[in-house]
Design brief:
Layout (H helix, E strand, L loop, with lengths): L1 H45 L3 H11 L7 H18 L20 H15 L4 H17 L5 H21 L4 H13 L3 H14 L4 H14 L2 H13 L7 H14 L2 H14 L4 H13 L3 H14 L4 H12 L1
Helix pairs in contact: 1-2, 1-3, 2-3, 3-4, 4-5, 5-6, 5-7, 6-7, 7-8, 7-9, 8-9, 9-10, 9-11, 11-12, 12-13, 13-14, 14-15
């Protein structure tokens, strides 16, 4: 019997060593390599090198480990930073719907990654909340010529955020994102009820008041909108940030309040003078208001700072003469 045991001793040792090597590589070396890549990508993102950072994360995705959920969340975080640094990164090419594999659509890629994460950790609230957030971004970017897709995206966003709310009730950041979905779906009364709950849960959460102000603009409740606008202002919420001003733009466009829309675009022009589109929109607002001289002045400023826009500016100036 001892001879028989000796005969299997070497194969058993080989298997044990092989198993130990596999364990060390899978649970130590490989995760360490992946974590190193994540840190390099995050460092590149901090420096503003988002293309490099995203490429590093994309290459790391196929290397599965127990860090899969963390890796994907960091990838989505870098996408978020890229969009925050330059909102134009949120704009998806027209072909992303028909051929998503051959186009660069950061919100779309974020949704794909988060859907993978939900399979890995279906009860992790953050995955559902972020999926709702990026679906909202896609709704904003999807053209009106795709009504069926927009309808589906709105239903998807509502489902994702409802799921997040079920997993973590009374989380105000979830409610705020869900309110945005309701606004995009024009469910203003539903959004208003969520905003009330948001405020009740914690009156110090500033975003709740801002959303309530926006909702009342959409509903045409000017006094209520102003009341919550002032409350938001008192909480030191950045009501003059580009994101906040663009949210006001959407509300005033919907309600056709060109006077306030012009004032908001004026703030955007002062905040981001390099963005020609804001000045062009301001000129159109002045045209709508019948303030032809102001519209002409803004158009000529565009021509001065952007000579390549000469054809469009001249066309606009001719329209003003009619």
């Amino acid at each position: 019997r001892n001879n028989e045991l000796r005969k299997y001793k070497i194969p058993i040792l080989i298997l044990m060593v092989a198993g130990l090597i596999w364990f060390i590589f899978t649970c130590n070396i490989k995760p360490l390599q992946i974590n190193t890549q994540i840190n390099i990508a995050l460092h590149q993102a901090e420096k503003g090198n988002f293309e490099t950072a995203l490429a590093i994360m994309e290459n790391a995705l196929p290397r599965h480990s127990f860090l899969d959920n963390y890796l994907r969340l960091q990838y989505v975080s870098i996408i978020g930073q890229a969009i925050e640094k330059n909102p134009e990164n949120a704009v998806c090419p027209p072909l992303w719907i028909e051929d998503p594999e051959n186009t660069v659509c950061l919100p779309c890629r974020a949704c794909e990654i988060l859907k993978e994460n939900i399979k890995i950790r279906p009860y992790y609230t953050r995955n559902w909340m972020l999926l709702g957030y990026y679906t909202n971004v896609l709704i904003i970017q999807t053209e009106d010529s795709q009504p069926e897709l927009i309808k589906q995206l709105k239903e998807d966003a509502d489902y994702y955020l409802k799921k997040a709310n079920e997993l973590s009730p009374k989380r105000q950041d979830i409610l705020v994102e869900w309110i945005k979905t309701d606004i995009l779906s024009e469910k203003y009364e539903v959004a208003k009820e969520k905003a009330r709950k948001c405020i009740d849960y914690n009156p110090k959460f500033r975003e709740c008041y801002w959303q309530m102000s926006l909702i009342n603009i959409y509903l045409g409740n000017e006094e209520e909108a102003e009341k919550y606008y002032q409350i938001t202002k008192e909480t030191y919420y950045d009501i003059n940030s580009e994101i906040a001003l663009l949210q006001l733009v959407n509300a005033y466009i919907k309600t056709e309040d060109y006077q306030k829309l012009a004032a908001t675009y004026q703030k955007l022009v002062e905040l981001k003078p390099e963005k020609i589109q804001y000045r062009a929109s301001l000129a159109v607002c002045y045209q709508k208001l019948g303030q032809i001289e102001k519209a002409r002045e803004e158009a000529l400023k565009i021509l001065k700072s952007s000579p390549e826009s000469k054809e469009d500016v001249e066309k606009f100036l001719k329209e003003l003469e009619k």
